[in-house]
Amino acid sequence: MGAEPTGALPAPPSSRPVRLDEVAALRRETYTVHMLHTHLLHCWAVVAPDGTTVAGPSVATPAPDRATTVRQVFAGLIAAGWDGAAPVSVGTRGTGNILADAPVPVPVVGIAEPSRLRLAEDAIASVAKALIGDVTISTDASLPRGGGPAGLGYSITSDGPLGLNIVGATTCPVAGVDRARTAELEAIRAGIGRAKCELGLFWAPAHLVIESDSAFALSYLVRTRAGRAPVRGDVCCDKVAARILELVEGTPTAFTRVWGHSGVAANEIADRASRLARRHAQ
């Protein structure tokens, strides 16, 4: 089973872009993951340095969720002999490859000691980060006239080979001095919560970008994160903001302002989703 790891845990894995013409030179020591992901077909294969290939099943629509796919690829790497220390090159046709350095040992399957589980999470995260890339969550909220639950909408995308493309909507009762501002924060919370639920253990974005057309919501989060008192805040906003910052803890996160109804595709999608949710609740 091997000795129990002692001392400090390894540093988090890192990733860097790799040109396609570098892949051949790297192949002698690199495990290469080839992927094809379309709306009709989803398949992958792992090629070991010695040429051994472990292929996953070709899956017709609907494709498995991203967390399942990452889990399958990780299992394929293990089956091909990956020890967690060798670099992994992940790419899809037309997107190039990303080399994910994973300087952590893979624990023995079945061992449940917390330190070994942590090492397993780090090893999985190194692959997930290369597969998923940077994640952008665009959100919006819509309030009905005369009261009632707010409609919350969000669009979740990522730029990795396994690009996320999720549109969702929900409703939420809101309170506070300014219900509209609370609703905008609730929309951000809902979008992040959905992304984390979708990826589960494989929530490992290299960077997270939160987009909103609410300058108030973004300023509220930035000031709260910096330990400064938000402008015109109230208890309801404080609670939602604290939950949002808890959800993104440990993840490099940027809050970006976009102008509503200005043609920004993700914001327009989130806006439509929020209005649909509001109408459904009425």
The total count of helices amounts to 7
The rough form would be described as elongated
- Give the total of domains: 2
Average pLDDT, all residues: 75
- Class derived from helix and strand content: alpha+beta
Q: Main β-sheet, in a few words?
A: 7 strands, mixed
The helix-strand sequence is EHEEEEHEEHEEEHEHHEH
CA-based gyration radius: 21 Å
How many strand elements?
12
- According to CATH, the fold-level topology of the largest domain is Nucleotidyltransferase, domain 5
Q: What percent strand?
A: 15-25%
CATH class (first level) name of the largest domain: Alpha Beta
- List low-confidence stretches: 1-18, 93-113
- Corresponding CATH superfamily of the largest domain: Ribonuclease H-like superfamily/Ribonuclease H
- What is the annotated CATH architecture of the largest domain? 2-Layer Sandwich
- Percentage of residues in helical conformation: 25-40%
**N-C termini distance:** 59 Å
